[in-house]
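Aim 2 progress update. The chain analyzed this quarter is reproduced below.
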Amino acid sequence: MPLNTTIRFVDRNNTIVDRTITKTKAVPTHGHAYISGYDIVVAELDSDVPPEISFSKVMPKSLSTIRPPSSIHVPVFHTDFEEKALVADLRYESNSMVYLYIPQANTTRQQFFESKISGDSGNPVFMLINNEPVLMFMFTYGGAGSGTSITFHYDDINNILQGWGSSYKLTDIDLSLYLDTGDVIPSIIG
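Predicted structure tokens:
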């Protein structure tokens, strides 16, 4: 988003809070064409939002690969350039990318699926864990959708924030209850 763009937040009481983008920086691609870091842009706002406005946590940096068994269809939700709320199924996350597929086993999910098209790039994708949206990636490619992993660029994002002198940094979702089971994905969604 360009500088001086107004970002609108809405809290649980429908109070509207507007903030303006004062600084941006694209996440580096590390010289690899296949690592599309430029679909992630870090922005600084003109002032903090009130504590009533929550933020999204991210997957732990140490969890760089997620491969659900083919029998388990893990839903993720996202928006498109029209700001519609949509659903897809997680295929896998590995290294710099996360891949989705069209919901197969759930007809309700299929009703809320649309293929990604030009203009959807940069929109966020979330997994719901314990009723909390966890930011996974930003769209880069079309079809069912795939994109740039936040986990892969974890240090890049924090380094941008630190370089600006910010005290903010990414916050991990606590998966300790699930990681002990040895079966992360079924436990998270079960």
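The two ends are 37 Å apart (CA to CA). The longest strand covers residues 16-26. These observations will guide the mutagenesis experiments scheduled for the next reporting period.
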